Amino acid sequence: MMKRRTFMASAAAAMIARPRLAPAAGAKITKPIPKTGERIGVIGMGSSITFNVGDDAQARASRTEVLRAFFDAGGGMIDSSPMYGSSEEVIGHGLGQLKPGNKLFSATKVWTSSRDEGREQFDDSRRLWGLGKLDLYQIHNLVGWRGHMETLQEMKAAGLIRYIGITTSHGRRHGDLENILKSQPLDFVQLSYNAGNRDAENRLLPAAADNGLAVIANRPFQRAWLLDKVSSSPLPSWASEIGCKGWPQLLLKFAVSHPAITCAIPATSQVTHMVENMKAGEGTLPDAGLRKRIAAVVDDI
User: Fold this and answer.
1) How do 77-79 and 30-32 pair as beta strands?
2) 293 located within any domain
């Protein structure tokens, strides 16, 4: 079987050699989860801050429309956490209204150092989402990861979750995370990656690829910082080669075009932004040469 690192090198070489084709309008881009081959859309949805609206009926209705736009555009993965305030509850409210069925790929997290409290959080998440089982359950920011790994393996064996993951953000604890990726029976890793923060390329993405892990890129806009940085600069004319009409699409396509990245999870509270984000998951992705041009432009702004 081909080593994942060898596969990445071959994929990158193919991207360089392959001519860029005209984007196929509306053609959804998917990538496989390495451990199973199940394919998911490259643009998912985050919920940190944006879905933490509590009991506000108008805000909840607005977020339900964001979810509707997401599913209408072929979206699947929705990521949340108990850390995100009322986000899980608001997501569950919207899912109850929309009933997306098998369109949904549910992803949330355990966020406590206690194994017992972790089990309680899991039960709370299922109740809040209105689901009997979760697709992906992740250890948030490595908190209590040793104990939770045992619990999550038990849950997976019992059929309560389908995939096990671990997360980090802000570029923290990359050394610890790399060791965990190499030693633990994980299916997914979630980390920060975008055109302005490419630190994960050095060791984490190769480690994920070598160990057959799907990778979720969080903070694809570095919150709003990256969009703010590029907003005053014109979109390069060559962005149209891959069907991009705005910076958000170009930045998202950069993130998910890395051979080791499976999907990205931008967060938004606006339907118009959701529609724009989802366009990044259509057509074609930048090849290796175009990726270098995107990175260089962002660095120079």
Assistant:
1) unpaired
2) yes
Predicted TM-score (pTM) of the model is 0.91
Residue from 187, 122, 171 nearest 148 by CA: 122
The CATH number assigned to the domain holding 293 equals 3.20.20.100
Residue type, 1: M
Q: Are 94 and 69 in contact (CB under 8 A)?
A: no
In a domain, 12, yes or no: no
Rounded to an integer, what distance in angstroms lies between the CA atom of residue 179 and that of residue 171?
15
CA–CA dist 137, 133 (Å, integer): 10
Q: Which amino acid would we find at residue 116?
A: D
Q: Is residue 92 part of a domain?
A: yes
For the chain, the domain total comes to 1
Six-digit token string for 54 = 């509590």
Q: Assess if residue 202 is contained within a domain.
A: yes
Q: Show pLDDT as tens, one digit a residue, over the chain (301 residues).
A: 344 444 445 444 444 334 344 334 568 999 999 999 999 999 999 999 999 999 999 999 999 999 999 999 999 999 999 999 999 999 999 999 999 999 999 999 999 999 999 999 999 999 999 999 999 999 999 999 999 999 999 999 999 999 999 999 877 789 999 999 999 999 999 999 999 999 999 999 999 999 999 999 999 999 899 999 999 999 999 999 999 999 999 999 999 999 999 999 999 999 999 999 999 999 999 999 999 999 999 999 9
Q: What is the extent of the structural domain holding 269?
A: 27-300
Question: Within 10 A of 154 (CB to CB), how many other CB atoms are there?
Answer: 12
